[in-house]
Amino acid sequence: MIISSRWYWRWGVLALVMVLVAGLMTFVLRPHEKTPPQLASAATKSLRAWRGVTYAGTTVNGNGAIIGFRLTVARDGTTYGTLSRDSGAYAELAVSPERTLLRGNSQWWFEHEPGSAEALANTWVADPPQGVIGLAELSRMTPTALADALSGKDTDGPSGRPSTWRQSGATSVNGRPAKVLTDGTLRFVVSASPPYRPLSVGLPGSAGSQGAATPESAPDASDARTAVFRSGPQDGAARSVGHVQSAGHVPTAAGEPAPAPALSSAVSEPDKAQVQNTTENVRRVDTSHEQAEPLSQRVAAQTDVAVQLTASFCSTPSCPATVNVTNQGTAPAGGTVIVTVAGQTPLNSPVSVPPGGNRTLTATATNTAPPGQTIQVSWSAVFYEASVMGDDPALVKRLMGRGFKLNEPLGERANDSKGKPVLQLLDAMTADIGPRTSPEVRESRLSNAGKTVANLEQQGAFEPFYDLVVNTNNLRVSGESGIAELEAKTAQLSLSDRRALQYAGELARAGNKVVWGNTYKPEGSSAEYKADLQNLTGKQTIQRKAVSGGTDAVVKAFAAAINELSGTGVVPPGFDKVAWIDIDPNAATVLAGSDRQALAKEFKKLKLDKHCNGAGGPAFDAAVFTTYPPGPDGTPQRTNSVFTCNELLSSAVAPHKYIQDEMVWKARYDPVWYSANYRDDGHRWSKSTTENGVTLPILAKDNENHWISKDKLPSAPGAKLSPAKFFGPASVGDRKRSSLLDKIADHRKTSVDLTNAELKYKKYGTPANERTRDKALKNYRKELGVTPNNSRIAERLGESTARYHVIPEEFPGAQWIPLPKTPNGADKFDQLYLLPDGTLLIVEAKAPTGDPDWRQGKGRHKNKMVQQMTREYVETIIEAMKERETKSPRDGELARDLEEALDHGKLRYVLVKAKDGGSSYAGGTLQEGVIN
Question: Is the pTM of this model over 0.85?
Fold first, then answer.
């Protein structure tokens, strides 16, 4: 068929018309995409019309502590919500136009008033100082004020000029596409499509607060940061003269502008019901607590009592002393006068003293001097108030016996209330002071310990140090010189010092021995090493720098850390070098809100790889950067991104490998990250969890007891177990053992409840979850005191199930064989028994959720992963016992016995697993592994 060319022409015209129409429709339906300044303008315009702002974010208080907050601020400044710290500290905040009310748990007050923490816990305090809250003036967080700060119209705000926005990335918030905008200082996440709304903000505060790279001095009256936050020492000074201001209405110096908020937070508009609930909650709290007193009055209300004891030379069988108690305060003093001398307590008498009054008492002690000899004794007296010092008079007597004068100030503060936490810290720091301690050493230790505690209170750093010394006892101190170094160190703490101290506590809670604040002197060596932090268990030297300034400050801090790691007397042989840059969530750099991928791109531009070349190898083994990128809902998430020189120097892109290596590193050295993603036994909370697009690795232990990826080495055959045999609780028989097992099961339930409550709060952060966590924590403290909440509590249930129930029931006559302890509890079997026929029985004891673990083998299995309940695992532990023989001969003896029994078929290996019965013991199961 032949077609005329005219038809081609007609079809061509028709096609052209259709293209033009389609193009016109596209232009009509898809308007020109908004520029970053237009996006920011549209979002701030939307913000000004909001009925309030709901915040979920982080900030840094005057003591350098990271504060999490979840608040709703109405248009008139009425505010209700919660504040928290990672340590478990939290507080409820209610702000009305007239006043501010705050109710914190005891952990919250550890930072601000540790000596009064128990007395202040869970009670409403009126108009607390700014430093106690940690947020900028709350009236600056209303929708209009926040919009002004973001737009630059607030010339007193962080920019001081109209903001010039550019797009720095793309993200999603609650599944909604969003664009990340920055003007080089501020960070602003805006929805990518209409209606354009703010989703997340990052404000560094006033320009002066941006600071420079640390090291830096602690905040003082001249520090620009104090325009945004009131530091702990200043709050103390304000109380001493009776000028405590409302947190919602903190005035600035004459002629100075009010500070802009300094925060990194997800933002959203509350609905009408949320605003109404906020207003009603504030009104309810305000009305029901009309009599709530200011913090200055609550602290000052604690009695100011002076105790004076007079005793003279005594040669009679009974020796008297006179005690005069004077109440120098304005409130009645009621308590107990305790006198100790030469191991005696000759006076333990209740007494009441009115304001301005005094009481005189007499104590009579037995003369303990041998016939014909004269001895020197030390009398000590204290006015003991259980409501202040806690319910542990034995602790008070113990400190008195060491020579502490507990009614006198520890430092320069006139009124340093010595609550139970303060006494516990003094006790831990002087535990080795005894009758044989020389007077010179005793005097030096008591003085330095007292000054250190006073310094920590004054610096607002009591909480992490208490956690490190009392809750874990994992701080290594080099004798009296080390104690003196601690006193000098704590007298002036930089922000970097505080972050290193906080991380030291995190490591210690995970079982690591650390050195902070004093020189590390290895045993048997004359060498000395001084760094920000030494992780003795993980063999790391960490130089940590906190940065609140711009990108240049980050680069300078990184260079400073690398330079310090290269110095002499810093890194012990065999230790990894870690440069850690802690970027504040409010820092004046886009890096503060960057995730790992964004950091990697920026570091290429900044050419950080130039710092990699050191003498004889890489200048560092790991570079860690702490940032606060928005999470799925826009809430900033503290994130540690770990880089090596291999990654920084590499031109190839291999993110999967680097990310997996990073996760293994964090499993070893980032306890907060580890507990959020793994159980204590190394099993993942969820197999589907990913980070930076990579699934969490399966973990196993290497020969140094460090976590490694299980996929790093090939695996030996797994365990082959017999069917489980159940032993019910009724077969325990012995009532005493049954009661003990019930108690241990209850302790595990208490531990699990606290762990679950903390995880739920971290994930959702609602006030209801906070109250649940507080209730669980209170119950935990009641049941287990200061015992760290870790896997040992659950492990004890498995071990007790085996020892007191299953093994005696299944193997009558089995004899318990004590096993030598190892430094970290690894490289050993749980239990060992000798059976009547001469067979040795190895027991692996597990909690209800425990399963046989994998680890790297030793000896002929060193290049494999081996699993508990297998012959390969038995041979690995025997090899580890042989390695310890020089220091522990008993390990060598047992290793030979086990090896001989294994070779002759006289070794059995069983798994005992406790059943989960909640608060009551529910029995256990037994399975035998095939090892012959």
Answer: no
